[in-house]
Predict the structure.
Amino acid sequence: MLSSHLSKGMQISMEDTGAEEGLVVCRVDQGFPLSEKVKVVSLREFLDRK
């Protein structure tokens, strides 16, 4: 089951690398925000991003 919160490790890695946006690609029908800077997306949504 998908966790509905952002892990501490993901938060730290985004801070360390200066990432402005994060994506979690997983098996969902439609994406949704996980936090202000991180979104869960389906593989199709990821591949369709420009």
Summary: The first helix runs from residue 8 to 17. The longest strand covers residues 22-25. The chain is about 30% helix and 20% strand. The mean pLDDT is 89.
